[in-house]
């Protein structure tokens, strides 16, 4: 009769009905104490395999992957992501999971997900017409989720580390020249949102940062704007969130041009019966609600570009890129420009805008640079 093992000892090999020999032993795993078996064609071979297996356990607990499906894991992961991610980031993660990951891997055991499965998904998505940037977002969501699976000891290795996601080419920066910026703002003079255009070009603030401004954030007498939050729209609702990065919470010196436009903007809002107290949004539609970005771009911004005879571009390029490049062209210190734009890394800015920088200079504001 085979001797029962205790305290980690293995049992003596016993002959099975199929002619092979089997020995059993206990092993400490990351999921608790488990029973394991080794097999051999002879008693001696089985005993040697038992000694080898038990010696391997001396290095510490043996990792055992959890028996959980990918769909069930993502259910757990999204509960955590909802509380740790910014709203837009979570919604992007949720949509990518629902549309791309679960249809491909949902019924697969998490421990059985292989590098080939992930690489094949990326290839299919590219062949189906998705851009490299879109596939890269799928990769980022999956890799981040699997990092948590490793942290939770559900799997031992993140297979995304072995995959080659598509290379995303750096976007071409096409800012306005100083003359084009002047035409752009001149064409917007009669627009109800003239101050929004001017503030975008002269401060370089992001769309969400501009539309998250309260009147209390503006000190027009001192020509200072405090950026403390961003207005974010997701799943049809608006919310105010922390700015994009750590360095995005900042104070920006306002151009005289922007101060004048903001004062006229406030007078217009008073005439429209809209609140202009400290807790009111600076930029709203005619009924005091946040501006719907896609409607604004389609109905106002794009027609404005045509009226000004300017090339088709997006809001970010027309305002933020333009402000950054004009300041660098005028020789403003790159560190000062990076701080105004809310970048914590000057290296990031130089990597993307170096060709617009003729040299180092003193700090300045858009008054002297553009007008």
Question: What does this protein look like?
Answer:
The protein has 371 residues and is mostly helical. The chain has helices spanning 43-56, 70-84, 87-105, 115-127, 132-151, 178-187, 194-203, 207-211, 256-271, 293-307, 315-329, 334-341, 346-353, 366-370, and strands spanning 14-15, 21-29, 32-40, 218-219, 224-227, 230-234, 237-241, 250-253. The chain folds into three domains: 14-59; 70-162, DNA polymerase, domain 1 (Orthogonal Bundle); 178-370, Orthogonal Bundle (hpI Integrase, Chain A), CATH 1.10.443.10. The chain is 47% helix and 11% strand. Strands 1-2-3 form a three-stranded antiparallel β-sheet. It has a three-stranded antiparallel β-sheet with strand order 4-5-8, with no helix packed on it. A two-stranded antiparallel ribbon has the order 6-7. Helix 2 packs antiparallel against helix 3. The chain is elongated. The protein starts with 13 loop residues before the first strand and ends with a helix. Mean pLDDT is 89; it is low at 1-8 and 359-363.
TL;DR of this structure?
The protein has helices at 43-56, 70-84, 87-105, 115-127, 132-151, 178-187, 194-203, 207-211, 256-271, 293-307, 315-329, 334-341, 346-353, 366-370, and strands at 14-15, 21-29, 32-40, 218-219, 224-227, 230-234, 237-241, 250-253. It is mainly alpha-helical and 371 residues long.
């Amino acid at each position: 009769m085979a001797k029962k093992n205790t305290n980690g000892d293995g049992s003596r090999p016993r002959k099975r009905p199929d002619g092979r020999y089997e020995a059993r032993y206990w092993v400490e795993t990351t999921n608790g104490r488990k029973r394991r078996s080794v097999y051999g064609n002879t008693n001696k071979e089985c005993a040697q395999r038992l000694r080898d297996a038990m010696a391997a356990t001396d290095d510490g607990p043996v990792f055992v992957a959890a028996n959980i499906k990918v769909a069930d894991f993502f259910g757990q992961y999204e509960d955590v992501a909802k509380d740790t991610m910014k709203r837009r980031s979570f919604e992007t993660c949720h949509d990518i999971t629902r549309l791309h990951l679960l249809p491909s891997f949902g019924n697969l055991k998490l421990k059985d997900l292989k590098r080939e499965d992930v690489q094949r998904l990326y290839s299919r998505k590219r062949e189906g017409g998705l851009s490299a940037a879109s596939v890269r977002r799928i990769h980022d969501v999956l890799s981040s989720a699997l990092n948590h699976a490793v942290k939770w000891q559900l799997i031992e290795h993140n297979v995304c580390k072995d995959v080659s996601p598509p290379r995303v080419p750096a976007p071409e920066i096409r800012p306005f020249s100083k003359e084009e910026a002047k035409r752009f703002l001149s064409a917007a003079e009669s627009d109800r949102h003239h101050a929004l255009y001017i503030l975008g070009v002269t401060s370089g603030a992001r769309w969400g940062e501009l539309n998250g401004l309260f009147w209390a954030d503006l000190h027009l007498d001192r020509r200072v704007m405090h950026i403390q939050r961003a207005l974010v729209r997701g799943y049809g609702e608006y919310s105010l969130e922390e700015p994009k990065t750590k360095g995005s919470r900042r104070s920006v010196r306002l151009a005289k041009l922007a101060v004048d436009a903001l004062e006229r903007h406030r007078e217009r809002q008073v005439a429209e019966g809209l609140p202009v107290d400290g807790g009111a949004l600076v930029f709203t539609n005619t009924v005091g609600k946040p501006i719907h970005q896609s409607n604004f771009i389609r109905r106002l911004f794009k027609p404005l570009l045509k009226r000004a005879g300017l090339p088709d571009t997006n809001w970010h390029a027309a305002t933020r890129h333009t402000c950054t490049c004009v300041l660098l062209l005028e020789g403003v210190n790159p560190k000062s420009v990076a701080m105004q734009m809310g970048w914590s890394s000057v290296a990031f800015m130089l990597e993307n805008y170096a060709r617009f920088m003729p040299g180092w200079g003193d700090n300045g504001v858009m008054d002297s640079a553009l007008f």
